[in-house]
């Protein structure tokens, strides 16, 4: 598949996910990242399921390269450090599956403290939104 078609598929998939209530964006250099919180995970999963048909019928999205994965992991580590520095001390470190905040963590993504930390940390990410 040509790089132009891959980019077009990534943008089409992201537009579909956004139109179906999820949040996703294409990363500079390729790849897709989704913003996932406990409050948005079900909505995002449903949007991705609907939009998977778009990908299946249009070809397939390439797996991220090792360099893209390394950049994303570095961004997520930076986010975790920033969130802890801004008042969310139990914010988890990322894994290969991203950053997961479980209900038992005691972290409330809707709390003013979490929201303020997220806003303070957003400046370090493309598009102003942490991965």
Features of this protein?
single chain, about 130 residues, mainly alpha, 2 domains, two-stranded antiparallel ribbon, 2 strands, globular
Give the helices and strands, then pairings.
Layout: H1 3-19, E1 24-26, E2 32-34, H2 41-58, H3 66-85, H4 112-121
Antiparallel strand pairs: 1-2
Helix pairs in contact: 1-2, 3-4
Notes on the structure:
50% of the residues lie in helices and 5% in strands. It has 131 residues and is mostly helical. Strands 1-2 form a two-stranded antiparallel sheet. Strand 1 and strand 2 form a beta hairpin. The model has no long low-confidence stretch (mean pLDDT 75).
| Shape type | globular
User: What fraction of residues sit in β-strands?
Assistant: under 5%
Q: What proportion of the residues is helical, as a percent range?
A: 40-55%
Report the structural category: mainly alpha
Short description:
The protein is mainly α and 131 residues long. It has four helices and two strands, in the order αββααα.
């Amino acid at each position: 598949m040509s790089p132009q078609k891959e980019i077009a598929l990534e943008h089409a998939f992201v537009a579909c996910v956004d139109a179906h209530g999820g949040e996703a964006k294409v990363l500079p250099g390729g790849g897709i990242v989704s913003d996932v919180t406990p409050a948005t995970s079900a909505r995002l999963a449903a949007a991705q399921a609907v939009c998977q048909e778009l990908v299946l019928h249009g070809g397939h999205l390439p797996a991220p390269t090792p360099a893209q994965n390394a950049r994303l992991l570095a961004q997520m580590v930076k986010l975790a450090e920033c969130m802890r520095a801004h008042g969310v001390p139990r914010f988890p470190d990322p894994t290969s599956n991203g950053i997961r905040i479980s209900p038992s963590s005691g972290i409330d993504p809707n709390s003013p403290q979490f929201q303020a930390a997220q806003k303070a940390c957003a400046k370090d990410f493309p598009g102003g939104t942490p991965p």
